Each structure stands twice: as structure tokens, then as C-alpha cells.
Amino acid sequence: xxxxxxVTKYAMLLWVCxxxxxxxxxxxxxxxxxxxxxxYPSWRLPNIxxxxxxxxxxxxxxxxxxxxxxxxFAYGWKYFSFVHHRVLTILFCFxxxxxxxxxxxxxxxxxVGPLLRISIYVAYxxxxxxxxxxxxxxxxxMVGIAFIGLSMVAVFAWAGLLIFxxxxxxxxxxxxxxxxxxxxxxxxxxxxxxDAMLPAYSDKRSTAFFFIIFQLAGLFFFLNFIxxxxxxxxxxxxxxxxxxxxxxxxxxxxxxxxxxxxxxxxKLKREKVMNLLGSFGHSESEQRLMFAAxxxxxxxxxxxxxxxxxxxxxxxxxxKVQGSPLLKRFPWLxxxxxWLWVNEHLDLVDRIGDLVVLASGLFIxxxxxxxxxxxxxxxxxxxxxxxLLEIAIKGAVLGWG
Length: 401
Prior knowledge:
The chain is mostly helical. Helix content is 69%, strand content 1%.
């Protein structure tokens, strides 16, 4: 299932990319190849001819059919009980029937195939579908902000229409209320700045305050305010989604708990939980560790609240670590203060070893010309002793494996 889902997902992505190499139907309309005209933005991408395009589309359509059939066999009719799966199946069917429509009417202008490909990929991708869900949840809350912004633009457009009436500025940028609003909307993006201001500014310098005030209110305040609101609403949508998924997960786990048949006290016996853990392919020793992680109160039973952690527990991965051979021979060392301190401060021992190596290198570099000096040889011996002591301490605590 994991590999099949990813293969289908990337096949859908390739189908979307294929759109950029597909020759539009209207290219040969009227016997003229308009797609190779100088004014057509082809970006020098190669075009696929009709026969090649039909072969490629049939391959992608086959992937869609295999996906539907495989899902129906894997999940049965329950697969179509989810709205998302029904929508995806309908999109697959439309994309499949769009192929004979295209190649049976080659010179038709319009085709829904490219739009269906993007819709299928969005519907099949959990990440994109989640993002669109977040955006859809934000839109109703952004209506009020959009109304405030449009109201601000309308007020400034009306003011500009009155201020620049009968001037070159008014004739070029503020002739009507709608043209004035469009000019200010573009001005808010700075795309026509300062061109939209120059006719009025050339005639009278003080008119610049109108544009400066609008830019302060629109560009520096309103757009940043929208950005902050969108970011805040996105975080709220993400938080709500996580809460809903958490509640849905708890409800599913509670249903699974009841299906396993708890006793009169509302708890599962150890044998049932061990059998459940064993069904996931864990060894007996791992099952005991997992059961101990679930059984927080040590009652040798698992309650409903404890059972909700089973998804986290079954994802645990265990690694056998070789213990210290020194402790096997002298177990009383584990209770000494020195052993406990070293075991808790191994990072500090590591840093000390690194400093010793660095200091040793600097010491050797600074005394290269006086290698026969007795004190230099003693210093070298001290550095080597400290370094070997660090290795011995780490080996004794962590083991030599």
C-alpha cells in the first residue's frame, strides 16, 4: 500500500507536468500552426504530436484505472464510503472519458483535461488537500478584512476623483471612480509607483501628501495587517485540525478497545494486550517492554486511557546496548558517587578530551624547536595520560562495543 500510493502520486505529478509538453488543440485550427508563431510563448519546449500524446495519456489513464480497481479490491465497497474517495473516483472517470473527447474532436478549442489533472493531483495529495482545507477555513474570516480594505480604497478613489478633477492626473489616472480604484489598488503593490503620482506632483508638490498618506495606510499598515491576520488564522486552522484529528484518533482507539472485549472493570487483561502487540511482529521481549510502557499503574492490566497510547508504543524501536563489562565484574561500582557522576557528565568528559587534544596540538606546535627539553617531554606525557584516561573512563561506562 505504501509503495503503491507513492507510485500513483508521482504518476499524477508527471501527468500534470505532461501538460507543458502537450500541444494545445487550437494550434492546428484552420490549417495554421499558431503554436510556433513568434508571439506564442512556447519557451522552446518540445511539443508532443498527436500519436505520442495519445500513448502517454492512455498510460496515465491506465494508472487511474489500476488505482481504482486496486483500492476497491483492497478496501472493498467501504473505500467509496468516504467523500474524498468518491470525488477522486469521479475525477478519474472524467479524465478517462476526456481522452476520446479530445482525440475524437482534435480541432476543438476547449478541453478540461489539464484542469482535471491538477484537481486529481490535489485530491490525491494529502499535503495539498490539507493546505486547501486550511485556506477554505480562513476565507470566511477574511471577508470582513477584505471589506475594510475595499472601503478604504473606495474612499481614497472618491477623494482622488474630486481632488484631481480637470487635471492631467485626473485625465490619466482618475477619470472615473472605477479607474481611480484600480489605480490605487495597483499603487498599493508599488507597481505604478511613482508614475501614478508624477503628473500631479509636477503640477503641484503638495499633492504628494495624498499618495503618501494612501501608501502609509495601504502598503505599510493594511497589507501587513492582512499578512498578520492570514498567518494567525492559518495557525488557528492548523491547531483546530490537529485537535479534530486527535479527537478522531481517540474515538477510533476507544472503539478498538471495546472491540477487544474489556472485563467488568473496564480493563484489558495482559494476555489480550500481549497477543495484540505480537500481531504487529514484535518479539516476546519487546512485547513485555511495550506492555510495561502501557501499564502505567502497574496493575498488570491496561485501561482505556492507557490503551490510547498504544499507537505511540507500537512505533517504538528497541536496540540492544551492550553494558559495561566493568559493572558485570564489579556491580557495586554502579552505586558509588564517582560512577554516577561520570555517567551523568559524559558530555563534560567529552569536552575535556577535546580541549586536551587541542591543547596538546598547540603545545607541540609551540615547542617544535625545543623538543629535547625535559619539561616539554613531561607536558607531552601528561597530555597523553589525560587523553588515555578519558578513553578508559568512557569505555568503562559505555562499554567497549
